[in-house]
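Private note to self, pasted from the team thread so I don't lose it. Backbone tokens:
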């Protein structure tokens, strides 16, 4: 009997940590998850942080449970992926000190201290905002000087995981992109950028490409997880880039990743950036490739919140069924989606659902769910139009992946809104995990076994679509005008 083979994949998102076991074909054999606990700094209201040690202990427990559920399997390698913009600080002995997640906004206001934001944008492909870890560190240095004095190194959260597994501390390019200390054009750390932020180059680990075999699993970790001695640890990358990797795009393809946010990415073989700073340019997990990104902001999280309010005990399938029975459009939504990759990063502080008055007796919870999905589709349309304006390219189709595209309604709405065929690979649901599987196969020189079957959703040319988009744009403008109320 041929023994099954596969990988152990660590995926540290914004809301929860997941550990998955996959076979070499990308089939997910088990996934275990737990929420990540963040704490607030009472001295800095916008600051959030996490303690690495309890998170690491939780991750190991998830790994043990996932391996047990997966059954008999030879683990060939381990890798990790994680949220972008999140970092872990370590002392000179390599002990983790504190974690700063992507949603840590302690850097608010520090961007005003930067003298050359245009130069930073040209080198890094992103306008400096508090989202990025360079500004988090700049703020942390001032707000927590005693803690900062103990800090010798930083790495991404995915890099921290592979360090815990292997003992080798590195930074991977798709994650280094998010620091504002990395010259994305040249794929290297920039001493000039470090000087602009007042941060030492010495705290930045070596840059190592995704798919590099980093070393063997530490003996104590192998014993805890009951792995063979010599099991390889492989450099992973940022969750968005690995999600893009999962659909196997070629240069020129546009990929929408429907998750907590919805990045719209164009795969490129050269570095370009928008003169008006409406996009990000990211290092990819593929050598000599970049991703031009226009990001719709919070989308999937909005839908999850609406489900929790209106369908707390029901499945997403129930929502789909109820939406399919709707006869009339009774509700529209403007829920704060915005191009977070733009220079201004102007996200409305107010929003909501809009319906005719007096309230119709036909208005149901399904209309609120439908309106939320339309809000996402309209935001994707806006991001797409911005990308076309920047690049001048109009694709004949787009690729989609991520958990949001499990919704048949969202699939059809996006295809209709863009007027393009939407292609969703079979493996699209756990996209970053599947992308990590492909990375592992490549690292170990194995044949690509991940299935490439694709579902194609074509637009019907519904003439009401553009009217809905215009209504959505009008709502956005009205909310922005009244956001100070």
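Design output:
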């Amino acid at each position: 009997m041929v023994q099954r083979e596969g990988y152990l994949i660590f995926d540290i998102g914004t809301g929860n940590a997941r550990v998955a076991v996959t076979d070499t074909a990308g089939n997910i054999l088990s996934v275990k998850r737990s929420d990540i606990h963040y704490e607030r700094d009472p001295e800095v209201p916008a600051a959030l942080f996490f303690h690495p040690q309890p998170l690491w202990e939780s991750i190991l427990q998830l790994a043990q449970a996932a391996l047990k559920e997966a059954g008999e399997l030879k683990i060939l390698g381990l890798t990790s992926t994680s949220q972008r913009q999140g970092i872990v600080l370590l002392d000179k002995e390599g002990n983790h000190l504190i974690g700063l997640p992507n949603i840590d906004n302690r850097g608010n206001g520090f961007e005003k201290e930067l003298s050359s934001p245009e130069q930073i944008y040209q080198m890094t492909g992103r306008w400096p905002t508090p989202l990025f870890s360079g500004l988090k560190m700049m703020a942390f240095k001032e707000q927590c000087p005693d803690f900062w004095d103990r800090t010798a190194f930083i790495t991404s959260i995915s890099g921290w995981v592979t360090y815990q597994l292997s003992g080798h501390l590195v930074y991977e390019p798709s994650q280094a992109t998010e620091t504002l200390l990395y010259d994305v054009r040249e794929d290297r750390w920039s001493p000039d950028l470090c000087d602009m932020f007042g941060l030492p180059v010495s705290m930045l680990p070596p840059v190592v490409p995704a798919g590099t075999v980093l070393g063997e699993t530490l003996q104590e970790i192998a014993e805890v997880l009951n792995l063979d001695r010599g099991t390889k640890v492989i450099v992973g990358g940022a969750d968005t880039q690995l999600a893009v990797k999962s659909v196997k795009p070629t240069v020129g393809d546009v990929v929408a990743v429907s998750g907590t946010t919805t990045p719209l990415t164009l795969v490129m073989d050269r570095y370009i950036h928008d003169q008006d700073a409406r996009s990000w340019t990211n290092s990819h997990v593929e050598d000599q490739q970049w991703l031009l990104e226009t990001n719709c902001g919070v989308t999937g999280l909005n839908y999850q919140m609406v489900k929790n309010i209106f369908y707390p005990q029901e499945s997403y399938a129930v929502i789909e069924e109820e939406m399919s029975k709707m006869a009339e459009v009774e509700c529209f939504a403007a829920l704060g989606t915005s191009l977070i990759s733009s220079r201004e990063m102007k996200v409305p502080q107010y929003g909501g659902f809009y319906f005719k008055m007096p309230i119709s007796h036909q208005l149901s919870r399904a209309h609120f769910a439908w309106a939320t999905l339309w809000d996402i589709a309209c935001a994707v349309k806006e991001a797409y139009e911005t990308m076309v304006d920047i690049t001048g390219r109009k694709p004949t189709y787009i690729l989609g992946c991520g958990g949001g595209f499990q919704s048949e309604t969202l699939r059809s709405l996006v295809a209709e809104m863009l007027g393009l065929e939407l292609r969703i690979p079979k493996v699209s649901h756990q996209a970053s995990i599947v992308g990590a599987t492909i990375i592992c196969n490549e690292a170990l020189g194995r044949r690509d076994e991940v299935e490439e079957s694709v579902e194609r959703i074509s637009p019907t040319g519904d003439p009401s679509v553009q009217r809905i988009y215009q209504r959505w744009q009008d709502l956005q403008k009205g909310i922005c005008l009244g956001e100070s109320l």
